Amino acid sequence: MDLQGFGHLLLSGAWVTLKLALTSLAFGLLFGLVGAAAKLSGFRLLRLLGTLYTTLIRGIPELLLVLSIYFGGSMLLMWLASFFGYTDYIEISAFAAGVAALSIAFGAYATEVFRAALMELPKGQWESAEALGMSRTQTFFRIILPQVWRLALPGLGNLFQVLLKDTALVSVVGLDELMRQAYVASGSTKEPFTFYMAAAFIYLGLTAIATAATMLMERASNPVSRGARA
Amino acid sequence: MNWDWSVILKYLPRLLEGTWLTLELVAISGIIGIAIALPLALMRVSSSPWIRAFPFAYIFFFRGTPLLVQIFLIYYGASQFEAVKQSMFWDILKQPYWCAIIAFSLNTAAYSAELIRGAIQAIPRGEIEAAEALGMSKPLQVRRIVLPRAFGIVLPAYGNELILMLKGSSLASTITLLDLTGMARTIIARTYTPLEIFLAAGVIYLLISGVFIGAFRLLEKRLNRYQHYRHQVPVELTQIDPRLQD
């Protein structure tokens, strides 16, 4: 495949794609945990909000989410800022809009993954930690979370694959990630097939790495296989 | 921020026009996708590694790359080759409508083929053995036992795939098609009311997926009704022998 000197452009795009995916992953995991906690909480209002979040976000296209946040986000932010007496123009960058949209979408699906993992854990874990005198926060971070991680990993791995591919959507609002660089390169060389194929193979490489990383993490988080190696 | 409900009302007919195109894209590519997925899935469960290789590579490529890349590869990519431009396919490949349908069909075929493969492998061994014992030939087994059984098993998962396809169809707007998302973008370019129009479009998508989910529930209940069948034992008998209770 002859990339006519545009190879570095694609690589720089891949780097932006990777940064976008990892930042969205971090926020998305946070949203997922908060969402799951809300859906399992004792307060009806929180449960309702959690259900609203997952139902709404899982039912609308990711592209629509990216576009709404990019084109509507600054209006919304300026409206919110006006309450604090800030009246200047606020612009939302393509990267920030992308992170917001992708992490909100990831979080909605991750909520379900975390909820299932949390419900999988026996209630006795909470009770025995309480009997040992641990506070609820301590129990959550020391006992529950490490186990939830192991149960949720396969599901989260799948979601990260989807997230990696969804980063391509942010090219629509002008972020210079892999997809957009392929668009630029094919525009000036008149060889669109070559560059979209090259981009496709870079995406394949990224998803393959993500899958391998998930498998390694799954193995590391499983006490049985950890014992077997030692 | 001034919220303007009237703009939604004013442009609702245009949004519904876009909705129609979205449904059309999903329906046509869904049907073509299934038609491609079935032979792929059957090849995938073949005992020969050579026959398995093609569907494996196909599924790996289409599931591992973004749908947007696939659409652009077909819509923009085809024009790179003079041979394609000279051929009779060019009449089809220069139209964004058909490019979108080709891309969506090939994409959903890859996902559906994996679902159908899973369903075929989930059919209890005994049922296949029974068919064999009755002297059914391989093609007859596939037609009468494997596919109908796989169809019932795959249904819930295929409902999810259909919702994902509905959401993926919004990418048609990137190659100038006026589907629901494309129409919303056009209206916003004229009125500059992104929040109102995107909200309206989002609600329409939610309604469509709600209808899909409901329709699949009904279909599932009907096709898999043997699962919901409860053997009725008269109360007097269960009182005599508690083991007769379910």
Keywords, separated by commas or semicolons:
A: 230 residues; mainly alpha; B: 12 helices; 78% helix; MetI-like_sf (chain B); ArtM/GltK/GlnP/TcyL/YhdX-like (chain B); transport (chain B); cell membrane (chain B)
Structural class of chain B: mainly alpha
Which consecutive residue ranges of chain A, at least 5 long each, have pLDDT under 50?
none
Intertermini distance of chain A: 45 Å
Calculate Rg of chain B over CA atoms: 24 Å
Low-confidence stretches of chain B: none
Instruction: Kindly state the percentage of residues in helix of chain B.
Output: over 70%
The shape of chain B is flat
Rg of chain A (CA only) = 21 Å
Number of helices of chain A: 9
Percent of residues in β-strands of chain A: under 5%
Outline the secondary-structure elements.
The complex is a heterodimer of chains A (230) and B (246).
Chain A (H helix, E strand, L loop, with lengths): L6 H34 L3 H16 L2 H21 L11 H27 L2 H9 L4 H31 L11 H12 L2 H30 L1 H7 L1
Chain B lengths: L4 H40 L4 H16 L2 H9 L6 H5 L3 H4 L2 H27 L2 H9 L4 H31 L11 H12 L2 H30 L1 H4 L6 H6 L6
Describe the structure.
The complex is a heterodimer of chains A (230) and B (246). Chain A has 230 residues and is mostly helical. In chain A, 81% of the residues lie in helices and 0% in strands. Chain A contains 9 helices and no strands. In chain A, helix 1 packs antiparallel against helix 7, helix 4 (94-120) crosses helix 6 (136-166) and helix 6 (136-166) packs antiparallel against helix 8. Chain B has 246 residues and is mainly α. Helix content of chain B is 78%, strand content 0%. Chain B is flat, with a radius of gyration of 24 Å. The interface between A and B is large, with 40 and 41 residues.
